[in-house]
């Protein structure tokens, strides 16, 4: 096998310095950072790091993004394959190692998140494919001694247009690999696309169906031991002492010892480790969260919201406008802590040996995790090898900005055991729900009113919630004047024409870590914004869809998706008794999504009948994946809106497993229709934008069906039974 691209020496020079000085043990000189940034911005990345062509013509594409079910392996492969002009049926995709050449083009570390994978790789991967194509064509032209202009690439072959001769890519790869990477390439215009924009079978689909797919939990290594950790019931607590006599007596148990945040049990398999952990007797220092109580926290948030916070958006004289409004409305919107709950619980494998550390992990943040492992082990960055496996879901939980907590535990166990054996660290579902790093609990107090014509006169909003970014390496970039940009996303740029606006924020400091959860700040901002605009429309006795459209004159893409979702749902049609339609529209991660939800309400019996979703995500790489992400996002958001809630009593999480933290079951799932609005704009994200829209559309539909306005999530708080 020969790789196409620059020489090995040049590649090592490009990859030798590790990017991102995030206090993670990865150090790069300022000059090196500037040079690397300039190179990344101006140069075509070395194709040999991203494309490998076998002698038989098979093509391997290296993905610098983690595959966690969103289909990015397929999208990235399509971007390269379109320009490379290769046989789609001969393609396979592998995960990139942790290395500087694979850093995110915007974040400058190797990470997957923020629904930015396609956006950040769209031009990059197309240019890589085009560069490899041009190098193959040049190699063929040299062999035939003809001008490059006389040759063309098609279906993994280069053709001589003059005489019809052809050479397969496998025959040309060695010669092409000796050529310089072109400084510029010509990308195919959209009307010549053959693959992009079509519905392509996922490259990881078959192996997931037949069980060949390898997740971190599937890794098996000779002599591997399994570790489970018993953690304090209140997050952040530490062990003061423990009795492990009964645990050590369990057959298969190799060791029991304290680590930073708990007591680790090491055994020759999961079940002996689990049984032994259950037998441990631990005395805890319960720490700063020992008395954490959700009821008291809610009361504290309401007391804070009653007072003005730090202003982050102010237009006009909102107080005067409110005083002069023809009708006034005050509403409080509340959402709870939420768990990410990926299907595959957190886990990894660490093999720490003298002079090296090898890791297998389903991580979203390779640079951060590899850096943390290097720092903890005392090794140089180049002595750490991180293999990114497939992820059984992530939703942000596998992108901890200060390093994966489960990897940290695994490193502690490996260092303590010190016998050079591979260690598999596993969490159970109970561990996952109690393991903190939640979507923040949030409260929004909104005051406003309408004028005599029914249009909004004033909008005053006070938000209360923890900062996700505070205390992380991203804080200097994302917290300005005390305002976390993530906390206010979705409200600071509302698309509605509002003559007077005052938005402010309280950011309480609570020793409970919070993290980006699928759609992040939009998950609470869309709920308050789209519920309140619906309430204003009702207060004005106007149709909620028409009301929104009239206020979005400067937001044509939002208008277009709302019109399309309303058209799909037959907005305005006569409905059966007890049925209602609710609408919402929201922009996040570069995409615009509108949804209409139909519900049936009979007393406390609630059925979500149908969801119609329209999305404008710019240029579409694979329509199947866009539709799948909308459908998955709707179910994810619906589960949270109906059931999702993490609550604390005496410092402990009250939800222990899926019996207390349900997700939507098949019989409860509505029918979903998705319409993709054609667009020539740059691609936006699709992994998250469907999530924040469904909760307000659902609450608005319940009001339409029953007259009951639900401002607190989850809806199970109100006694609804899903049917």
Automatic annotation (TrEMBL):
| Pfam families associated with the record | MoCoBD_1, MoCoBD_2, TAT_signal
Q: Which InterPro entries match?
A: Ald_Oxase/Xan_DH_a/b, AldOxase/xan_DH_MoCoBD1, AldOxase/xan_DH_MoCoBD2, AldOxase/xan_DH_Mopterin-bd_sf, N-heterocyclic_Hydroxylase, OxRdtase_Mopterin-bd_su_IorB, TAT_signal, TAT_signal_bac_arc
Domain Aldehyde oxidase/xanthine dehydrogenase a/b hammerhead, chain residue ranges per copy: 210-288
What is the official name of this protein in its record?
A: Xanthine dehydrogenase family protein molybdopterin-binding subunit
């Amino acid at each position: 096998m020969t790789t196409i691209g620059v020489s090995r020496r040049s590649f090592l020079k490009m990859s030798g310095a590790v990017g991102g000085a995030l206090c993670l043990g990865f150090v790069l000189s300022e000059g090196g950072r500037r040079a690397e940034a300039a190179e990344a911005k101006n140069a075509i990345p070395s194709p040999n790091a991203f494309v490998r062509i076998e002698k038989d013509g098979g093509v391997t594409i290296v993905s610098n993004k983690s595959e966690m079910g969103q289909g990015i392996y397929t999208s990235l492969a399509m971007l390269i394959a379109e320009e490379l002009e290769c046989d789609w049926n001969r393609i396979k995709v592998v995960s990139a190692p942790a290395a500087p050449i694979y850093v995110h083009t915007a974040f400058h570390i190797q990470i997957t998140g923020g629904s930015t994978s396609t956006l950040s790789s769209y031009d990059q991967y197309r240019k890589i494919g085009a560069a490899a194509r041009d190098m193959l064509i040049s190699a063929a032209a040299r062999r035939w001694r003809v001008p490059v202009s006389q040759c063309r690439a098609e279906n993994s072959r280069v053709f001589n247009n003059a005489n019809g001769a052809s050479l397969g890519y496998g025959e040309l790869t060695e010669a092409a690999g000796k050529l310089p990477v072109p400084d510029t390439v010509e990308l195919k215009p959209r009307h010549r696309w053959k693959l992009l924009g079509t519905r392509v079978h996922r490259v990881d689909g078959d192996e997931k169906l037949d069980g060949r797919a390898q997740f971190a939990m599937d890794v098996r290594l000779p002599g591997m031991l399994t570790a489970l950790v018993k953690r304090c019931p209140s997050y952040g607590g530490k062990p003061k002492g423990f009795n492990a006599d009964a645990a050590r007596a369990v057959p298969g148990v190799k060791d029991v010892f304290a680590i930073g945040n708990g007591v680790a049990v090491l055994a020759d398999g999961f079940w002996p480790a689990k049984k032994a952990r259950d037998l441990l007797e631990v005395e805890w220092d319960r720490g700063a969260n020992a008395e954490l109580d959700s009821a008291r926290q809610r009361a504290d948030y309401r007391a804070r919201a009653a007072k003005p916070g730090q202003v982050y958006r102010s237009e006009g004289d909102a107080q005067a406008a409110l005083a002069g409004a023809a009708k006034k409305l005050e509403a409080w919107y509340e959402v709870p802590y939420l768990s990410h709950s990926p299907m595959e619980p957190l886990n990894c494998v660490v093999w720490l040996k003298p002079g090296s550390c090898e890791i297998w992990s389903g991580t979203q943040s390779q640079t951060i995790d590899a850096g943390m492992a290097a720092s903890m082990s005392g090794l140089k960055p180049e002595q750490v090898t991180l293999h990114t496996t497939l992820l059984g879901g992530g939703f942000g939980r596998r992108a901890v900005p200060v390093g994966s907590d489960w990897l940290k535990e695994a490193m502690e166990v490996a260092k303590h055991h010190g016998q050079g054996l591979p260690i598999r660290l596993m969490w159970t579902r109970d561990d996952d729900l109690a393991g903190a790093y939640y979507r923040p609990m949030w409260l929004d107090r909104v005051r406003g009113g309408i004028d005599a014509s029914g249009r909004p006169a004033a909008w005053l909003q006070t938000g209360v919630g923890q900062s996700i970014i505070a205390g992380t390496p991203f804080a200097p970039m994302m917290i300005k004047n005390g305002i976390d940009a993530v906390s206010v996303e979705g409200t600071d740029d509302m698309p509605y024409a509002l003559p007077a606006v005052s938005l402010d924020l309280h950011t309480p400091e609570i020793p409970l870590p919070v993290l980006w959860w699928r759609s992040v700040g939009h998950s609470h901002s869309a709920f308050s914004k789209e519920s309140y605009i619906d309430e204003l429309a009702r207060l004005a006795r106007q149709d909620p869809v028409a009301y929104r459209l009239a206020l979005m004159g400067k937001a044509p893409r939002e208008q277009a998706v709302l019109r399309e979702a309303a058209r799909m749902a037959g907005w305005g049609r006569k409905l059966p008794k007890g049925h209602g339609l609710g609408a919402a529209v929201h922009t996040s991660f570069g995409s615009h999504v509108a949804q209409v939800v139909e519900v049936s309400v009979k007393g406390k019996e609630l059925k979500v009948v149908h969801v119609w979703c329209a999305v404008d995500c710019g240029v579409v790489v694979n329509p199947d994946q866009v539709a799948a992400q909308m459908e998955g996002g709707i179910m994810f958001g619906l589960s949270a809106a109906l059931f999702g809630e993490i609550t604390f009593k005496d410092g402990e999480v009250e939800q222990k497993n899926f019996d207390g933290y349900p997700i939507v079951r098949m019989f409860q799932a509505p029918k979903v229709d998705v319409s993709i609005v054609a667009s020539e704009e740059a691609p936006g994200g699709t992994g998250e934008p469907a999530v924040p829209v469904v909760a307000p559309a659902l609450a608005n539909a319940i009001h339409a069906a029953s007259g009951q306005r639900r401002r607190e999530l989850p809806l199970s708080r109100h006694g609804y039974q899903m049917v």
